[in-house]
Amino acid sequence: MIAREPFMTSDKTTNYPMQRFSVAPMLDWTDRHCRYFHRLLSGQTLLYTEMITTGAILFGKGNYLAYSQQEQPVALQLGGSDPQALAECAKRAEELGYNEVNLNAGCPSDRVQNGRFGACLMAEPELVADCIKAMKSAVSIPCHGEKLVSALMILIAMSFCNVLSKLSRSKAAAIILPCMPVKRGYPG
Predict the structure, then answer these.
(1) Where does the record place the DUS-like FMN-binding domain (predicted)?
(2) Domain region containing 126
């Protein structure tokens, strides 16, 4: 991933390079403990949370946005498709000190897609653009969308150029393309 602008850790001492290494959000892996461990391995890595749904953040009983300051810089990955709910969650993330917000529009899991987020959003680029616009208007930290790309999705679901065109109009801080194989029955 290539960052558009360098940023600093919460203590304002470390400038990050224009090109940066990020640890991708992975269900059942990139929890608080894993991110803390990753931070011990590298101070030059942007760490992502696991995907957290807007419903969990807005209506859940747990403190789903909790993290350690030692994890900084850290990005919140959101799952959802309601622009207003995503904007509210982005506000909460910014208030808690998250460096970025990422909209998951790439998870191929059936469980995720049944909730109308993840890879099924590839079929609704206007909605994704609206979601990113809403988040960007609510916060000053970077907001971007993640798209999981596979040849099958591009050929069958829709024109990839159409998706990128619509997303570019949203003025997203970045469009992240994690190129990995999509396996049938991905548990995420």
Answers:
(1) 23-143
(2) 21-176
Q: Measured between alpha carbons, how far is 31 from 8 in angstroms, rounded to an integer?
A: 22
Q: Among this protein's residues, is 179 annotated catalytic?
A: no
Those residues whose C-beta lies under 8 Å from the C-beta of residue 41, and which sit 6 or more positions away, are none
| Closest by CA position to 135, among listed 75, 175, 85 | 85
Residue range 96-145, pLDDT digits in tens: 999 999 998 877 777 776 777 787 787 788 888 899 999 999 999 988 87
CATH number at residue 100: 3.20.20.70
List the one residue out of 116, 57, 137, 47 whose CA is nearest residue 92: 57
The tens digit of pLDDT for each residue in 152-162 reads 444 444 556 67
Q: What are 79's strand-pairing partners?
A: 53
Considering its fold, how many domains does the chain have in total? 1
Q: Which one of 89, 107, 120, 131 is the catalytic residue?
A: 107
Residue from 180, 56, 35 nearest 117 by CA: 56
Cβ within 8 Å of residue 113, ≥6 positions away: 107, 119, 120
Does the pTM surpass 0.85? The reply is no
Residue 41 confidence class, pLDDT cut points 50, 70, 90: confident
